[in-house]
Hints:
The chain crosses the membrane at residues 25-43, 55-78, 84-105, 141-161, 173-192, 204-227, 234-254, 260-277. This protein is mainly alpha-helical.
Amino acid sequence: MVLLCAAWGVGQVAMKVGGEGISPLAHAGLRSIGSLALLWLWCRARGVPIVPPEGARAAAALCGALFAGEFVLVYTGLTYTTAARGVVFLYTAPCLITLLAHLLLPNDRLTRGKAAGLGLCLVALMLAFGDSLRLPSGREAIGDLLCLAGAMAWGATTITIKATRLRFAPAEATLASQLAVSALLLPLGLALGEPGIFDPSPLILGVLGFEIVLVAFGSYLAWFWLITRYRVSGLAALSFLTPVFGVLAGAVLLGEAVTLPLVTALVLICVGIWLVNRPA
């Protein structure tokens, strides 16, 4: 899970760079189309079904809609608010996932230790991005709410997988249903007047390739496999590492500054993760 967070953190930088040459919805759609093609080859080589079992198809369709909706909400939200504010509101999702797990999953209850750990992670995230968390303008408030709605879609997707027959389906089939629906974001973006790939430079195409192979195919396949086998509250807490890795990747790859609040936030997040995952 730590490796996945590192990949997603670098993926945030890749999305930022790729956005300089690909419009948002087309970007997400192209990523899903490429990853779906790789997943089909993977399933064909391994003899794994790519279609969810019959009893899980309604849940798979719902997850696909939520998965695509998350990207629409977050990409749109980031056109109204800053990236730092968007990250903070998007990463309320682990808290939402843990609360829903407490309500809907009998084997994943919220304890005082888990609540303290999640609260510490959220405070640490606000510390890391505190400079950007002033009172929002009207435009920023719209973007903040859209990113918060994206967090809700992320949480609902995770719990739907865990609480339905999808938890018994191969991870490949679960991922395929979500990539298939989110691939529709490409024609949606073009229908809304997006230019698609407007700067097909080697850097932009290389970034898109990284997102297709390592993020949307490799890391998401591993994520859906993990969901079916481990407590979602523990996985959700670990996901707080993603924005920290994203800032660190920005420092290494884009020359952005690493501040003392960021380092402090990383320490606090590690303590919070320990509180959530420690044995009872």
